[in-house]
Design goal:
Elements lengths: L5 E11 L4 H5 L3 H6 L2 E6 L23 H8 L3 E3 L9 H15 L2 E3 L1 E2 L2 H5 L2 E5 L2 E9 L14 E2 L4 E3 L11 E4 L1 H15 L4 E7 L13 H10 L4 E5 L7 E4 L2 E4 L4 E5 L10 H14 L18 E9 L5 E11 L3 E4 L2 H17 L6 E2 L5 E2 L1
Parallel strand pairs: 1-2, 1-15, 2-3, 3-4, 7-11, 11-12, 12-14
Antiparallel strand pairs: 1-16, 5-8, 6-7, 9-10, 13-14, 16-17, 17-18, 19-20
Helix pairs in contact: 3-4
Amino acid sequence: MGDGAISIVLAGDLVLDEPDAPYWLAGIAPALQAADLAVGHLEVPHSARGTELEGDVPAPGAPPENVAAIADAGFHLLSLAGNHIADCGAEGIADTLALMKVAGLEGAGAGLSLAEARRPVVAQRGGWKIGLLSYNCVGPENAWAGDARAGCAYLRIETADGSAIAPAAALERVTAEAIAMLQADIAALRTRADFVMVALHKGIVHTPARLAPYERAISHAAIDAGADVVIGHHAHIVRGIEFHRGRPIFHGLGNGCVVTSALSPAQDHPARREWAERRKVLFGFEPDPAYSLAPFHPEAVNAMLGRLVLHPDGRIEVGIVPVDVLAPGRPVLAEGERKEAVARYIEQITLAAGLPAITIAADGTVAA
């Protein structure tokens, strides 16, 4: 353990497809920069080259220069295992990792082989050694890394009917393979780290509150295997917060900062154009037209950062930093009535998901 308390801030998905990334990130940067360690999830590759991955709706490569802006905003560590990180193929992953290195960012969850993708990152702060592992739970399978294939680390979650594992599939069952991988990787990391974070790309997109059948099981399995916190993302809308064995599970941090034209019907890419329309029917929502760069479920304006304070005696203070998303998609630290509204929203969706009740104090502290 470290000699004193340190603070960690956790952000959800980062998709920075637009120019002027510093502007889009500036609204949450004060919270990131005030923390000893800030962690986010890089959703898409940052590259101007590569071959488009087939099988899912592919995201475009984000501007390479935006990686430096992520570092400048205050991020230190990035989880990378998700359903879009391989959308520009091996070249996109290689470019992203190279840009991160230049910017001073470290990450886990993607690489040019499965061994590289499963490799954790360990950061040192105030005498603490803090480790991060990152896994994709939602597919698609052709984005997964192999022995000699670039991609992301993954945990296999099966469908009820045995169909292919993909983000739109009805994923239900945690496999023995997934549990074994978690146990092995966490046990190895515990020999190197005082505090272990496990990032899971999981859940049902664009749907308030609801958890898929496997989400609590895989999150509990990570804690049971020795993780100190589980960090969820993927749904593009926040989820409830749970404690298991006294350890926090953020079931979904929602959008950390997502500004993109890739979800607009007005574009040249046929698969992305079709998905922009189909998801409204599938998930029963109509985006607010004012949110042209973040056309998500209307409730997604209620956003958050996770907050942890680690104490030398082993105590973990758990909290949130309420975030408001302003049109056309810029997140800012919530104030006044919006700060209170976001806290009450997270309490409500925690209950609606069938999770034990939590309370969120005025300073953002979360208690079971």
